[in-house]
## 1
Amino acid sequence: MPADQYASIRYLVDDVQAAVDFYTRHLGFRLNTSAAPAFADVIRGPLRLLLSGPASSGARATPTDAAIPGRNRIHLVVDDLDAEIDRLRAASLSFHSDLVSGPGGRQILLADPAGNLIELFQPAPTP
């Protein structure tokens, strides 16, 4: 794979435009292409997030029993987790976990409009 190629993840969403708005307004993604209401993709750094609505070929290929949001999540590193939490709460977004601290850093989960999880993570300071 060429070094300048994106790593892509597909999320199944109920409403493509709502997902695009969520990721571009709140999480720093930019819209790459849109064929809403079936499909759009957004980009942040080397990550290309494929947002597939019910009419997309990606969603149609998914077995019904596997079409619900799962335990997988994208992992976004942030510089100041407390500031991100405050900013997102001010935008009336709610979180799906408490803030968790561990030896590697701190994290919190939120969900997109379809229920797909996003982990915001601030690494622990290096000694």
## 2
Amino acid sequence: MDWPHDPDGEEGSEGRRKYGQAIIAKKIDEDEDFPLNKAEFVEEFGDEPIRIDYERVVSLGEIFEHVDGEEYGDFVEFHKAVGKGMREAGYWFYEGAEQFVKGKSA
């Protein structure tokens, strides 16, 4: 896929390789963006690349296909929903991520 910018470049990861949820969190202004509407957020950033691990890059929109909720009241609620969705979709690359999904709610 052709990305609007290099996921490892300055715009994608602030000059250092960062992964997944850290890149998504950087798109949020905690003081101004809440409550945050999922559809509007995906419309604005959906085509942007998110590096999942050292091999895989997916779009933010693809990640949000697995994130529950339509609106998030604050950063913690948003962060929990994104993390849960990423774990359930297999977008967490560390060993043991599945233990945080089974029977847990965001």
